[in-house]
Structure formats: structure tokens, C-alpha cells
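Session log. Operator J.P. requested a structure for one protein chain; no other inputs attached. Running the standard single-chain path with C-alpha cell output.
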Amino acid sequence: MVGVVKTLREGDIDAMLTKMRVFFKGIPYDIQLEQEKYYQTIFFVVFRMLGTEVEAESRSADGRVDAILKTPERIVLLEFKLHDTAQAALDQIDSKAYGLQYQDDGREIIRVGVSFALDTRNLGEWLIG
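Structure written below.
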């Protein structure tokens, strides 16, 4: 997981997710589950163990965002989709206004939609908004 926290702190979310893709590639196929919460749990555990402030299923007035990563400089909202697109995930962040509660926080807010690919058992596509 070399560099995952570094890329997050630098705000290079694309590089961070690329490193997560490498991590997922190393998980044996026969211990994986075909559920969105499986992937969400992996994200949560990785970032928690790396000392990053992370929330899962963070609730707001309009719903809950799958994961939030917080650094002193930024707040990263992540919505995951297993049977849908990264665009659908990003659209959900926007339609539910998940970032609104952090608007006065002073940190940069980054919205990220991530889809997972069952055929590769890995991150599929992602969009950063």
C-alpha cells in the first residue's frame, strides 16, 4: 500500500485509486464476495489501518454516502456501485447533495464515483468530480 496515503494527502485521487486497484488484484478470487459491501469494507479497513480518518455509511438528511476520507486539506466523498456505473455513483452524490454538510468546513471537497467490475473482481471505472 505504498503511497496510498501520500496520494490522498496530495489530492491525487486518480493515483490513489490506481494503487487500490493494485491492492485488490492481490486478493485471491476464492475469498471474495460478490457484494458491494465487500468492496466497501476493504476500502474502510485499508484506510483505517493506514491511519486515515475514514467513515462508512455516513448519514445525512438525504441518505448515506458509502465512504468519506478526511485529511487536513480535503474531504473525499466516495460512492460505490457494483451493478451500475461510476457516473451513476457520482450522480447520486450530486442528487443527494452529500457534500453540502461540509460546504462551510473550509476543506476542498472531492466527489468520487467508483464502479466495481465483477469479471475482474476489482475496481472498474471511476469519475472524479
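Operator note: Residues 4-128 form a domain with the Trna Endonuclease; Chain: A, domain 1 fold (CATH 3.40.1350).
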